[in-house]
Amino acid sequence: MEDNRSRRERRALATRAIEPAQLGLAGAAQLGCRHRQSGQDAEPEVEYFVTSRVAGKLSPEEFLNTDRQYWGVESGLPQRLDGSGFEDRLRVRHKGAVHIPGLFARVGVALFVRWATNQRRVRDRTFPTWREWNSGHRWHMIRQVVD
Asked: What whole-number distance in Å separates Cα of residue 75 and Cα of residue 101?
């Protein structure tokens, strides 16, 4: 039992070691089945998780905490690519070229992270600010990659 966003929540996790061939997932080492219920009247939710970390390196408690941190991951790179970088709006006509804009977007995020650490004001440490600044200084961005 724990509090999750001001709600009482019951979570339980059962794990077991697996072989990659059992699921057809390369690197799969552990399978988890989580049961969660928020409030007494709510229907229990069941979710399955797979990880490449073996049971000796990832305990059930750590497994649950890793699941809890999911949105921390989701608000990092995917937020910058989709929300701020408009990756979902990209239109590529050739199937073989679809990975190229994605590669450039990820390089851009890496350059942004390095740039943001040098900004004094918090409001200047945003991906849209960085993108707008670089749109007027294209050679500066090329120098960041080359240097």
From this structure: 20
As a residue count, the chain comes to: 147
**Distance, CA of 29 to CA of 54 (rounded, Å):** 5
Q: Which phi and psi (to 5°) does residue 30 adopt? A: -145, 140
Both tokens assigned to 57:
């390196």
| Parallel, antiparallel or unpaired: strands 2-4 and 30-38 | unpaired
Q: Where does residue 33 fall: left (phi above 0), alpha (psi -120 to 50 degrees), or beta otherwise?
A: beta
Taking CA atoms, 111 is separated from 8, 32, 77, 78, in Å, by 41, 36, 13, 16
pLDDT tens per residue, the chain (147 residues)?
777 666 788 888 899 999 999 988 889 999 999 888 887 788 889 989 898 988 888 888 888 877 666 655 555 666 667 666 666 666 777 777 777 777 877 788 888 888 888 888 888 888 888 888 887 777 777 777 776
Termini Cα distance of the chain: 52
Give the DSSP H or E segment for 31: strand 30-38
